[in-house]
Amino acid sequence: MTTQQLIDQIKIKKSFLCVGLDVDLTKIPPHLLVLEDPIFEFNKAIIEATHDVAVAYKPNIAFFEAYGIKGWLALQKTINYINENHPEIFTIADAKRGDIGNTSSMYAKAFFEDLNFDSVTVAPYMGKDSVEPFLAFENKHTIMLALTSNEGAFDFQTLLVDGKELYKQVLETSKTWKNSANLMYVVGATKAEYFTEIRKIVPDSFLLVPGVGAQGGSLSEVCKYGMNDTIGLLINSSRAIIYASNGTDFVEKAREEALKMQQEMAAIVSLKFEKV
Description:
By secondary structure, the chain is α/β, with parallel strands linked by helices. The chain has helices spanning 3-13, 38-50, 62-65, 68-85, 101-114, 128-135, 153-156, 166-174, 195-201, 219-226, 239-242, 250-273, and strands at 17-21, 56-59, 90-97, 119-122, 141-147, 160-161, 164-165, 183-187, 207-209, 233-237. The protein has an 8-stranded parallel beta barrel with strand order 1-2-3-4-5-8-9-10, surrounded by 7 helices. A two-stranded antiparallel ribbon has the order 6-7. β8 (183-187), α9 and β9 form a beta-alpha-beta unit. The longest helix is centred in the last third of the chain and has 24 residues, at 250-273.
């Protein structure tokens, strides 16, 4: 999926909602556990309940790897289901990979070719040669961790190095890498006050924003400081949507929560593109 196709979907659906698929068998409705593949069946139900109000899905790879081969097969079935039934959806492999060049090439091949995700999250700590192998794939997107929403983000990301915060140096350096136009960035919603500074460095890039909802981030604050001319945001919500209920009504409750977010986004999208 190209960036323009993603922007088009935001306009069509009046939404920039990304639904995170963080599937924990201890939290999904118990009645699904008797099924042959409860992880996939849960994902499928969530997707069918929300695909018309979401523009992206983000399976968290750790939540699949934790269940071994069964989890990996459920992941494969999930991404195949989205690609075959809802090809307009932008897919994100939340894998946070990042290693030396030849290893990164294999990670990229796994997620972009074998599983056919549109994008994958990566950690930039090892530098250019750990990220550029991902960037080499045409019409695929590499979503680099920039400023995360966890408490430990302050251990390194905001440290001053030669008078400038490290996360700013990471952003600036990433723009010099080959095929950097394929970069998107992860910026936590709980860091809303930093968005203005981030937009000075990457004004046109899409930002994947976790932390709205369960982690306390504010959608209005993120949009106020982080939105650009094409919206430029993918707001991720995981637990607030997928675990809105663990009863037999989990589908209806998930849709209610997703629709609530989409309706708030619709007003923002309409206002942004009303002159288009």
